[in-house]
Amino acid sequence: MIDLSRNRAELLAEIEAPLSAGEYLSDITDPRFATADVRARVQGCAKRDLFPLLKVVLSERFADVPRPELMRDLLIPLRNALGNAYKHGNDHDPAKAVSVEVTLTRMGALIAISDEGSGFDVALTLRRFQEQNGYFANRGAGFRNLQEAGSTVSYENGGRTVLLCFRPAMRGQDNALSASPAFSKVLDAGWLQTFLSAQLPEFASRRAKLESCRVYATRGRAGDDCGHRCVLRVSGPDGQAPATRVLTARLHATEAAAEDDFEFATRLSDSRVTKRLAIPPPVTRPAEEPRLVLYDFDPWVNLWEYQTQRRSLKSLHHAAERAGEALAGLHRSQIAFGGNETDLTEDGFKSMVSHTRTTLQSLPGGSDLAGCFLDCVKRIENAAPRRKPRILAPI
Q1: Distance between CA 64 and CA 288 in Å, rounded?
Q2: Which residues pair with 39 in a beta bridge?
Q3: CA–CA gap between residue 217 and residue 183 (Å, rounded)
Q4: What is the side-by-side order of every strand in the sheet holding 161-166?
Q5: Quick check: 42 and 30 in contact, CB under 8 A?
Q6: Count of CB atoms situated within 10 Å of the CB of 65
Q7: What residues have CB less than 8 Å from 269, skipping those under 6 apart?
Q8: Measuring CA to CA, which residue among 111, 77, 82 is closest to residue 98?
């Protein structure tokens, strides 16, 4: 929650960090970032420059923290603070930087996000937020998420710096990794760097150079089960500053499963069935470990987590519509909806709910799926007095 009475010195004391700066790491892929008491500084322009790597390294650092807690109290507030710094603080100016200073101890983390803007009246904005008056220029979700986080949030430097103090409950470590040879190879950054340098066209042709590679395993309570992350540091031939690229690596149970996954992911990406969904292509499948597939994407939330965060029927409808259009295009659906055919009568809506519930219950884990569906139905019905529910997506 936002507590403007707290200052940096007090928050550093809460995580038992010394006030003196000491050494600052400039590379947060340094292995010390995962376990030691350290300070680090990174800088970028926009959220997309900073959040993907910060998300990966902080998830490794706090791998024993349950994912819902890590999301609510650290990752979502951090992402919102970075977005606010770029959009509102720096006014989308690419010439201005967003700076992030991270202090890590065994008790938690203090993250300071600073912009180069003119600042704002934080106390006035917080008071308007508490009084439910107009306090935001866009949707106001960023400020609301900072207020609802379990971490302590404060400001300094006239609103140009936000302080985020994350103190997870102390738990036992749950970071054990499989000792199988195949799993060890997947996590071997040296092997992966050699393979990618030889196999990916941009590196093999020397248009770019793969300077370093670090693999972050999906593990512990904070893991998102999407796959291991491979953080690549890439430099171009014209002296440009090195850039960070994140790939997702999935180790399948069998070679056949990996082959099918690679083939159908390629077909789906090449099909271009929709412009409204990003469909990431698979990058490569190593011959030395044919169960492994690397993808050019780095998801940070799944759809359920995203909708839980947004808490909006409009957002749920928007996501369902996009998914429905993509599926209709992929399967070449012949279903067409006219202008008024999407307006359901009350009996039609109830019939659809009953049919869908029966279908969901027939699937593995159907009781949970049906329960989630009925929860959405209740929310739709509660909103129905003002407008009739509509189904716009042919799913």
Answers
A1: 32
A2: 24, 103
A3: 10
A4: 24-25, 38-44, 98-105, 108-114, 161-166, 152-156
A5: no
A6: 24
A7: 279, 280, 281, 282
A8: 82
Q: How far apart are CA 69 and CA 72, in angstroms?
A: 5
User: Can you spell out the DSSP letters for 138-189?
Assistant: S--HHHHHHHHSSSEEEEEGGGTEEEEEE-PPP----------HHHHHHT-H
Alpha helices per DSSP H over the chain: 8-14, 32-35, 47-61, 67-70, 76-84, 122-130, 141-148, 181-186, 189-199, 201-204, 255-271, 303-310, 313-330, 346-361, 366-383
| Average pLDDT per 10 consecutive residues for the chain, totaling 395 residues | 94 89 85 92 92 94 92 94 93 95 96 95 86 64 83 96 91 49 74 92 88 87 86 83 89 93 89 78 90 90 81 78 78 59 65 86 87 82 58 44
Q: Let me know how long the chain is.
A: 395
Give residue for tokens 């399948």. Answer: 252
pTM score, two decimals? 0.80
DSSP line for 233-274? EEE-TT-PPPEEEEEEEEE-SSHHHHHHHHHHHHHHHHH---
